[in-house]
Structure formats: C-alpha cells, structure tokens
Amino acid sequence: MPTLSPKRRSELRGEAHALGPVVLIGDKGLTDEVIAEIDRALKAHELIKVRAGGADRDAREIWLDTICTRLEAHAVQQIGKVFVLYRENPAQEKPAGPAPATAPRSGAERLASGREKQRAKDEKKRRARDIEDMRRKGKIPANVKLADEETKRTSRPRSRAPSPLPESGPRRRRPRSSR
C-alpha cells in the first residue's frame, strides 16, 4: 500500500475539516462490527472521520493502527479522539457517454471544478481592471462600450434627481436615566 504524499495528505485534511464523525467507537472498543461499519463507510465516502471515545491515548493509537492495517486505509490525521481515515475506492469502469447528474465526484474532481470557476472569476476581474486602466490612461474613450463589459441593471430604474428629505419636527431625544 503506497503512502500518501504530504501534499495529498494536506488536501485530505482540508476536505475532512467540514466532515462530522460517521462511526463511533464506544465502550466495547474496536469490535468486528465497528470495523465492518468503518469498511462500509470507507466504501461509500472514501474519506471519513471516526470518533473513539472511552479509551486512553495508547489504546486509541493501537485502534488506529489496527483499523489501517485491517482495512488497508490511510490515517490522514488524528486529533484527540477523532481519526480521519482515507481509502481510495478501486477504479470502476465508467460507461460510455455523459455521466449521470447525480454521479458522486471525488475530492480531486470537486477541487478541480472549483479552481476552474475561481480562475474564470479572476480572469473576468482582471479584464475589467485592465479596461478601466486603459480608459483612465486615455487609450479607450470613456463613452465606448466594449462587448465584454456588462451593464449593471437594477430591478427599478433610478431617478435622476435626489429625493427630497422628509419634513419633520425637531429630533426627539431619549430621556436620560437617573444613573
């Protein structure tokens, strides 16, 4: 079983941050039923958290080693009584054609799609900044609209004249307390 690289371990720690424990190890300790439940959770999610309550530190370390060796999983992190475990699902053959809309994506795919969205946003902001700089320097006239520029529209058109302030009496003040 190859070990996880430090970069991959860091990515998995980041993904596991938002997860809650899916398996609890109780007073009876690490039983075969608990190991079977951890195995099912790893098959379903690849990355899980396990809470080990009611044991001392040495016992928890032994439990973590036992889980990792029996299930061929990687220990990503251990903080107190919480273990973060990772086991990659075996590659399944994907059918030809488009993937179903509800197909689960791995953490790397979610991370890649999020990075692409962020890059697109950053590119859009950079382009708008460049256009504004060119207008300021006089390279593009201010009244020319470019195809890339979006016009901001509100749900209600703005009036050109400011609205008058309401007529009211003198400002009332709260009475002072006796303190």
Give an overview in words.
By secondary structure, the protein is an alpha+beta fold. Among the domains are: 81 residues, YhbY-like (Translation Initiation Factor IF3, 2-Layer Sandwich); 34 residues. The chain contains four helices and four strands; from the N terminus they run αβαβαββα. A four-stranded mixed sheet has the order 1-2-4-3, sandwiched between helices. It starts with 5 loop residues before the first helix and ends in a 42-residue tail after the last helix.
Summarize the structure.
The chain has 179 residues and is α+β, with helices and mostly antiparallel strands. The protein contains four helices and four strands; from the N terminus they run αβαβαββα.
How does the SSE layout of this entry go?
Blueprint: H1 6-16, E1 21-25, H2 32-45, E2 47-52, H3 57-71, E3 74-79, E4 82-86, H4 107-137
Parallel strand pairs: 1-2
Antiparallel strand pairs: 2-4, 3-4
Show unreliable segments: 93-97
Which strand order do you get reading across the main beta sheet? Answer: 1-2-4-3
Helicity range of the residues?
A: 25-40%
CATH superfamily caption of the domain at 6-86: YhbY-like
- How many strands? 4
Ends apart, CA distance between termini? 73 Å
What's the CATH architecture name of the domain at 6-86?
2-Layer Sandwich
CATH topology of the domain at 6-86: Translation Initiation Factor IF3
Order of helices and strands, N to C? HEHEHEEH
Q: How does the overall form come out from the CA principal axes?
A: flat
Number of helices: 4
Strand content: 5-15%
Secondary-structure-based class equals: alpha+beta
Q: Determine Rg (CA atoms, Å).
A: 29 Å
CATH class membership of the domain at 6-86: Alpha Beta
Largest sheet: 4 strands, mixed
* pLDDT averaged residue by residue: 80
